[in-house]
Fold these 2 entries.
Entry 1:
Amino acid sequence: MQATVARRAMFNAAHRLHVAAWSDEKNKEAFGPCNNANYHGHNYALTAKVTGDIDPVTGYVIDIKTLKDIIETEVVQRYDHRNLNLDCPDFVSKNPTAENIAVAIYGHIKKHLPPNLTLTITLHETDRNYVEYNGN
Ligand code: NI
């Protein structure tokens, strides 16, 4: 019997989407306002979903407090109120798009979970735009 446990968290961060090898014109064309040289911010909303068997003794897939603590340490403390391009090694050589942030978050959380549990990351960059990543 499987179930999915989910925990939401928010963080605020600045970023700029930019490919150094491209001209200013090409960057502007590809990334629009997200290429702004002086960066801009988003209120990111993360949902981490953990799926697995319900433990017959505890009744848990995972203790939600454990998941909460992992997210706090690995995501919120790492990214909240940071400039993703300048402050975060994850994005030194990678554009901090919602896709790449979701993949990075997946890695940071997954390494703390028992291998039998699967993880899906949903990352909202705005109310209307979000990305999902499940390790594939
Ligand atoms: Ni942006």
Entry 2:
Amino acid sequence: MCGIVGYVGKHPVTRVLIEGLRRLEYRGYDSAGVTVVKDGQFQTLKSTERVEALAKDVAKAKLQGTYGIAHTRWATHGGVTLANAHPHHSSDGLFSLAHNGVIENYLKIKKFLLEKGYTFQSETDTEVLVNLIAYHYQKQPVAADKNRFLESVRRSLRHVEGTYGIAVICKEHLGEIVAARRGSPLILGVGDGEHIIASDVAAIALHTQSVVYLNDEEIVHVTDKDFSLSTIDEDDIEAVIHTVDWSIEEAELGAFKHYMEKEIFDQPVALENAMRGRFSDDGSTSKFGGLNLSPQELRQVDRILFCACGTAWHACLVAEYLIERYARIPVEVEYASEFRYRNAPLDKNTLVFILSQSGETIDTLGALREAKRKGHKTLAIVNVVGSTIAREADGGIYQHAGPEIGVASTKAFTSQVMVAAMMALHLGRIRDMSYSEGQAFVEALKQVPAQVQSILDQSEAIKAIALKYVDAEDFLFLGRQNLFPIALEGALKLKEVSYIHAEGYPAAEMKHGPIALISPECPSVFLVAQEDTYQKTISNIQEVKARKGRVIAIAHEGGDFPKDLVDDLILIPECHPAVQPILATIPVQLMAYAIAAARGCDVDKPRNLAKSVTVE
Ligand code: M6R
């Protein structure tokens, strides 16, 4: 959470910083602020509103400078106030700092600094860090070499417990920015006579496609023409410059009103991209370039553990159903935040899969590191290329879903499920799945983009259904087997964007408690599978109708679904059972979006949330 950006170079600095903040705002939007340097002085403006409000203030004040730093905040320490907004200055006025992360021992450091006479204006942990830097700066001899600024940051960070991505500037070292990371992402964009530091490539790609991904415990000293990379422990590092293939156009809203809507409609292309080049020539299995595991090694795996958070965790649950059914390998699914502290006993032949759209979620990263520490092979399914999880996993698969900007994950979810289905096929084919079953599976996957498009073509009808329920304050989402995770995902999507209370359950589990909620005021969305549990789910619908509950059913075409039993029916194409979770997701996404938009909610930036959760 929180986005930071720093720029030194030939372009007007406020424009670069504000544009960077716009592209990082998904990381937090409680407040925003900017510090630029003009005539050796800090010019700082902050707003407790969104980046657009800050942009207006910056334009009105005609704020200009030669270089600077900026921040968009997701509040942790202290409420949403101007005093708590970043950048923070040291009490001697020499330093300004933007920070993403949490300084866990800030109270101890604050006490120490208060005793030394430093003063504080905010409740934040960040202001403690900037004053600690000022303290270490003053402790060094004035005649210290040109590295005095860099050294004071380095020394301060050695005393810090917790996480940080920081960008710091100093009035006595004009034209320099020092940035460092531990646990929070930080990327350096390397341009021609300019450098930009940011939490995400999105803020950099407008200027340059050449980037250096900082690793934990690394610190970079930057001027317009040069940069030097080293560790907090002072070891010099040879920077590796990567070229990012990041298209600005993909992140533009186009004709859509919200990113969530755009990203729902991006799904046919995202799903196509997840499959591109990943089927064997004989069309009977899938292949992945980056697994770094041979079929022989994969054959040794006798258990798989999936770890993730939020929506990605729901994709893991679908993966569990698919891999157990088609590859016959036992699968467990853990919340990453629980796994990393649970010390679960894992058999040595357990393969650990990590799922993350952003590749930066701190709990998921923690789970990956814990699994690696215990000697397990780790594979990651990640969307953001070059993200920390992608770089640290032993191997992995990129989703290629394109940038996902809306805080509510949509296309990343269906693309994760697509990759999971392809993995189930891959693992199945090196075990007991036959050639013809493999071919049928591949054919089914290839049809998914067109099937998703056909559901999107019904979006107006689905919206009309959703709007009948716009005033409900509670919803149930019910499904069985591999549609149970979609019930969870439907409930999460609705609650995060519309603030309606919603719960997802296995449809049969409803009788064990949630049925008490059923009333005309609490609608139920039933996800009806084509096979196995079809009749059982119809019986569950009967139970709800008998209690005067309103029911929206999502069922497959071509069946004998009793239309009159339900209040509203959404039909999705007949399909292979492995892909029904993807198809069933589209209507619940469209419904959540339509209801939230109709309720006037801030769909892309729901209250209290941030897209990339980089604090524990
Ligand atoms: O980037 P990640 O996939 O690791 O993010 C995990 C969750 O934070 C994320 O899916 C979150 O639950 C979304 N807001 C759901 O829409």
